[in-house]
Each structure stands twice: as structure tokens, then as C-alpha cells.
Automatic annotation (TrEMBL), chains A, B:
Its EC number is 3.5.1.87. CDD domains: M20_bAS. Binds 2 Zn(2+) ions per subunit. It comes from the Bacteria. Pfam families: M20_dimer, Peptidase_M20. Residues 205-306 form the Peptidase M20 dimerisation domain. InterPro entries: Amidase_Cbmase (IPR010158), Bact_exopeptidase_dim_dom (IPR036264), Peptidase_M20 (IPR002933), Peptidase_M20_dimer (IPR011650). It comes from Halomonas organivorans. The lineage of its organism: Bacteria, Pseudomonadati, Pseudomonadota, Gammaproteobacteria, Oceanospirillales. One of its GO terms (molecular function) is metal ion binding. NCBIfam families: hydantase, PRK09290.1-3, PRK09290.1-5. This is N-carbamoyl-L-amino-acid hydrolase.
Length: 407, 407
């Protein structure tokens, strides 16, 4: 069984690389801090006899040999990069729990049939290079290697240049090694488990997500002398859309419809000027693809209606779409069996957030394990998961991996 | 009668001081550009024998002698400062039309009974030092001199320091000279006259205005895993408030209710993060004070309801209130008589925007003259009024002033 204290100590040690003022971490992808985090992990892994390789987009594959190294490995992993003011658990837990699995097996002298692989996926957060999960997506064939290497950060540095600069430009062809299966442990990043008093989520898939950039173009004018009937108020139209989308999502008793408007920018805003142009982001999610289609259609209708009501021109662009993912039943079953053995409250659930497992699931049988995080908060220095829950998640991960590797 | 071409030439010459890329002007209050504009005006006025004084908050009083210089002067004026990307007419027309009145009387050898006074009020726009109309407000006793001098711009420079630096710190006590009457010519800054095909607005008063800073405090959380029912979405609450206020204002068939939300800021916005804090500005206007009270009460109720619906804490602060102004009937009548003499389509109307005349009207009989501006646009480089309308407005101003000065 795994050593929860040791796992916690590695989490806290990793958090010291790129520490932030309020107890979080800042390790943007492929910065010196991200590289230092990877090297710390590699030191720990080499100490227990693991070997490692890096592919052309910087994905790091750390192998623990099995009895049959000719077979494809059973893998785990997540990411070590963080948001600018990120937490100590999002991604990191999934990587360090993999390390803890390796260490525990090492301590107990256990060698699995199949080799095990711990993967650190590059740039999951998407904070430095958009979009999120770009390197696991490249591994799975969703993005072309050259395109990924050419993506630029806000300073114009390409992902390829950043890889060279930080020493993690590898030569392993992207897509190798092929995996027999992939398990990812992650904090839930939402409040569902905590709210229900449950300790483990057996993740059966990931909801579909679609991202839109919306522009409302009206006419800016002075707030005082312009009659309501002659206005073309871009913010009024945006507010109408937001309100209608919220009302629709809140009316769905199943709770499966999710709508979020995260960014709203008014061009040249001033308190006594009617907004002439507003840019809004819309994030639509649903666990059923056809329902997501219907939600998008509703969004398009409400957008057109809001524009018409307020005499405002509207346009929208869908900039990302991630279809509903259903994980492999055999991997879900392995996680469920390992969870049942712990005799804690648990549930099957869909992931609300995208994870590297979304893309990996296209090329290997995959599932995920969630543990609760305090107040559902993540992407925030205040992100927290208890040592007990981290330990529990790592134990479930260990048991699921060993079961699959030895099947 | 006044010389419309000469007026237009002075407007265009003034616009060359602090010109902007797209044909507007940038003369923020008490900058070197603003001072250069004032000096150009003073050169023109001295050339026709005027004298001038500056009060302690930089208001500039330029006098044309009358037959009875022991009597209080009949005054006109407006402001020379602009928005950062302002136009060539807002404020400037009111000042340069006053100059044109003086020049025309000078050319024709006319001396009025009472002296005439052309006033350049400091910092009307409020772009550099908040609030707007602060120096005419100080003249009228609304603000204390020391408070006005201590107001700071975004760089921390006080209004008093800026006055010294630009050479317009005067020693005339604020509140002097007392005025027999005040007429202000201004572009409408709205589309009403243009929309109706009318050339002059006889301004009978100014609608009441109230400004609010509103804060919505919810809880930021990840857009994906957070169920709608557990959200505290600050933007959803703000959108609900905006939508309800818009619906209320648009439903007022009289057109007298005006609501504008000009600024909306989301704290640490990200497209997949539920907004945790939103700051919104609300501008409420009405021509009837008791209706404005009712509008504020409605705003407060809708704000509370929006907060409750979305589980968001709300707070608001009223940062400015300007009561409904009714101009002096004798001054309105003088403007109306001068307008009728021109045989053009005109209307009586309330001003939608605040002007220096709002505060001056508390201490002297006052009214205003509006001319149309293209598409109702102001506070914008594209602001435009035709030479014909400028000339017409200046003629009405001249006739109203002379009639009062000789009454
Ligand atoms: N885990 C995570 O934050 N992924 C980013 C994509 C998403 O918004 O779900
Ligand atoms: N004329 C003008 O823009 N005044 C500022 C105050 C207002 O918003 O009405």
C-alpha cells in the first residue's frame, strides 16, 4: 500500500518550485520553473531505477520496467505546469501519485507483468500556449506536431523555442510509446464530491465543451442626451444573451446543462458613454453531444434575438469544440473495483473539466479518478485537497494500474 | 450679425492645438495643450480690447466693456478642455461663439449697456480630474475651493499643481465676478434635433443624473465542474440587473427615463472561470426629480433581487447626484425670441447631458442653446456640426446676450 505522508511531502516539495505569495505555485509551461519541477521528478524517479524519454513536443515518459517489457505499458500521469496563480494539486497530484505508486512498488519489491509508464504532458493549462491540453492532443493526433511547435506565447516565443531553451526538446516521435491503458488521478475542480460527502469519483467520461468568441457591435453615444429608442447598446444586448443563457441552464433540472460567460470587454468604456462594442466569451458544456448541439442552437437563436432587440449587430466564432468523451468500460471497472475496496463513499461521475485524459482516450483505453477539493476551488492559490484524500486517490490509482498491468 | 466663416476658422484653428489622428482634439484640462488653447483665445480677445482675470480654480473671465461697467455683466462661455479623443465642438463652440459675438460687436462699433463676459470654465470634461464640471461647480459653491485644488489626476498631480504648472493659477476669489445672466451654446450631444430635422434647441433645463458604483461579489470557480445550482456567478447577477433596467427604461413611452451601464469589469476574468467579482457603473437620468427617485428605488430593488437570484452579495455607492435643473424663464424667453427671429425649425428641450450651465444656474439666471451634431455623436473624434448650424447658434447667442445686456 502507498505511503500517504511521502506523497504529501513530494506535493509540498514540488510547490516550493515557483512558489506564490499566498501558498500556490507559478510554473508556466516550459519556463525555468517548469523545467526545475521536471528535473526534481526525474531525480526522484532515477533514484528508484526508472528510465525516461522525451518526445518532440516535450511530453515526458518515465518507465518502470515490468516482467514483459515487450508489452505496451500501463500508464498514468497528468501535468506539472500551473496557472499563473495556480494551486499545488491541479495536475501535480496526478504526476506525484504516479511517482508514489512507483516508489511503493519499489519498496515492496513488486514487479508488474507489463511495464508502467508515468507521463508528464506538456502545457496542459493552456495559460502560456493556447489551447489547453495541446501536447496530449498532439500525442493523440488531434494537432499536427509542427503546428504545436509553432504556437506562440504572449511574448512571441514559440513552444519549440521554449522546449529548446528549457532543455526538454526530445526526439521521441510523437505518438510513442503506445499505451496499453491510461489512468489519470485529478482533483475534481468542482464541489460535487465535497457537497455530497463523498471521497472518490469514478470518472466515466468528460462532458463536451464548446468555446465561442462573440462580438456585439452597436453605436457608442453619450448616456445623457441619447433617447432609449435611438440607442444601439452593445452591453444591453450582451446582458440579454447572458441572462437568457443563464435562465435556460438553471431551468435544466438534470443539472447537465452548463453555461459560463467568463470574459466581457467593453471597447473604450466610460460611465457616461453607451457601450458601442462588447466582446463576450461563451463556454457551453453538456454530457450528451446531441444536447450540446441543441444548446448551441439555442445560444445562436438567443444571440440573434438579443441583437435584434437592441439594434446591435452580432457575430460569433466557435474557437474550440471538444466532443463528449466516454472512457473505456474496462478502465472504469478497474477504478471502480479499486475504489470499492477502500469502503468509502464514492460515485460514478462525468468530468466537467477537460484533462489530458480526454485526448489520450482517443488512442488508449482510459479512465480517471477524482478526489474532492476544498470548496471546489481550483486555478487558484487557495486550491486544497486533504492529505487523506490525496492518499486515497493514489491508492486507488495504484490498485487499478497493478490490476491492469497484471491481468 | 455674426460672421459664420470667421467662427468656423477659429474652431478649426483651435482644433490644431492637440490634434488627434482622426481629426479630433486632445486638450486634457490644464495640460500644456489646454494652456496653449487658452493663450490663443486671449490673443484674439486682447486684439479687440478685452481684459481678463483668472480665479483660484483657473476659471478665465474675459470682459468686453459696456456703457455701465458698474453693472454685473451678461456672460457666455463653456470649456476648452476635451476628452482624450475628443471632438472639435463640445465646449469649444460655446467659447468661440462668445469670441465671435465680441468680434462682431467690435466690428460694428456696438457697445452694450451692461458689460459682457466670456468665461472659460476649467476641467469641464472630468477626464483628467473627476468629477466633470468641477470648476463651475466650485464657482457656484457646490464644491469647496481647497477640495477642488486637492483633486488628483491619474498620475497623482493635484489640480492646484497643474494650475501652477500651466500658468493659469489666478488670484480672483472664486465666485467673482457675479453674473447678471449666463447663456451657453453647445452641441446637443444627442440625436434628437437631427432626427427631427430641427436646427435649434431652446434649452429649458437639464435632466437629473445619478451615478452609482455597483459591486457584485460571488465566488469564482471552474466553468466545467461547477453545477449551475452551486454557482455564485457575479456576471449573471450583473447581466440580470442590466437587462431589467433596460427593459424598464425602454418601456417608458414618454422616453424620459434613461439608464446606461457604461463600464463593467470582471476581476481576473478567464473564459473558463465563473466570474467571482464584477464592478458595474450605473447612470440614471430623468427630467422629473420624483421620477428619478422612483427610478433609483427600482434600481435598488432590482439589484437586491439579482443578487438574491444568483447567490451573489451586492453593494452600491451613489457617487454623484445632480438634481433636475430648470433654467430661468427670462433667459429661456430671450433665447426663444432670438431663435424665432431666425425662422428655422426649433424646439424647447431639456438637456440630457450635464454642462457648466447646470452649476452656474444656481447663482445666476441661465439658459442654453443647442444645435444639432451629426449622428448625435460626441466625446469622439468624429464629432461634427455644420458651419451653418454653428453660425446659427452663435447668432442666437449674440441676439439673446445683447437683448439682455440692453434691457
Ligand atoms: N482542467 C482544466 O482546467 N482544463 C482546461 C479546459 C477546461 O476548461 O475544462
Ligand atoms: N457634457 C458632458 O459630457 N457632461 C458630462 C456629464 C454628463 O455625463 O452629462
Amino acid at each position: 500500500s502507498i505511503d500517504g505522508q511521502r506523497l504529501w511531502d513530494t506535493l509540498m516539495a514540488m510547490a516550493e518550485i515557483g512558489p506564490t505569495a499566498n501558498g500556490g505555485s507559478c510554473r508556466l509551461a516550459l519556463t525555468p520553473e517548469d523545467a526545475a519541477g521536471r528535473r526534481l521528478l526525474l531525480d526522484w524517479c532515477e533514484a528508484i531505477g526508472c528510465t525516461w524519454r522525451v518526445d518532440r513536443v516535450g511530453n515526458l515518459f518515465i518507465r518502470r520496467a515490468g516482467k514483459r517489457d515487450d508489452l505496451e505499458p500501463v500508464a498514468t500521469g497528468s501535468h506539472l505546469d500551473t496557472q499563473p496563480k495556480g494551486g499545488r494539486f491541479d495536475g501535480i497530484l496526478g504526476v506525484l501519485a504516479g511517482l508514489e505508486v512507483f516508489r511503493s512498488l519499489h519498496d515492496q519489491g513488486i514487479v508488474t507483468e507489463r511495464p508502467l509508464e508515468l507521463v508528464v504532458w506538456t502545457n496542459e493549462e493552456g495559460s502560456r500556449f493556447a489551447p489547453a491540453m495541446v501536447a496530449s492532443g498532439t500525442y493523440a493526433g488531434e494537432f499536427a506536431v509542427e503546428d504545436t511547435l509553432a504556437r506562440r506565447d504572449a511574448d512571441g516565443v514559440t513552444l519549440g523555442e521554449a522546449l529548446e531553451a528549457c532543455g526538454f526538446a526530445g526526439d521521441l516521435p510523437v505518438g510513442e510509446p503506445r499505451l496499453d491503458g491510461f489512468f489519470e488521478l485529478h482533483i475534481e475542480q468542482g464541489p460535487v464530491l465535497e457537497d455530497a460527502g463523498e471521497s472518490v469519483g469514478v470518472v466515466t467520461g468528460v462532458q463536451g465543451m464548446r468555446w465561442f468568441d462573440v462580438t456585439f457591435t452597436g453605436q457608442s453615444a453619450h448616456a445623457g442626451p441619447t433617447p432609449m429608442r435611438l440607442r444601439h447598446d452593445a452591453l444591453a444586448a450582451a446582458a440579454r444573451l447572458i441572462d437568457r443563457l443563464q435562465a435556460h441552464a438553471m431551468a435544466d433540472a438534470s443539472g447537465d446543462t452548463k453555461v459560463t460567460c467568463g470574459c466581457l470587454d467593453i471597447e473604450a468604456a466610460s460611465r457616461n458613454v453607451i457601450p458601442g462594442e462588447v466582446r463576450l466569451t461563451v463556454d457551453l458544456r453538456h454530457v450528451v453531444e446531441t444536447e450540446l448541439d441543441a444548446l448551441q442552437a439555442l445560444f445562436e437563436r438567443e444571440l440573434a434575438a438579443a441583437g435584434e432587440t437592441f439594434g446591435v449587430t452580432v457575430s460569433q466564432q466557435r474557437i474550440w469544440a471538444s466532443p463528449v468523451v466516454e472512457f473505456a468500460s474496462e478502465c472504469i471497472a478497474a477504478v471502480e473495483a479499486a475504489t470499492r475496496a477502500q469502503a468509502v463513499p464514492w460515485r460514478r461521475m462525468m468530468s466537467g473539466a477537460g484533462h489530458d485524459a480526454v485526448y489520450v482516450s482517443r488512442v488508449a483505453p482510459t479512465s480517471m479518478i477524482f478526489i474532492p477539493c476544498r470548496d471546489g476551488i481550483s486555478h487558484n492559490e487557495a486550491e486544497y485537497a486533504t492529505p487523506e484524500h490525496c492518499s486515497l486517490g493514489a491508492q486507488v490509482l495504484c490498485d487499478a494500474m497493478v490490476a491492469r498491468a497484471d491481468r
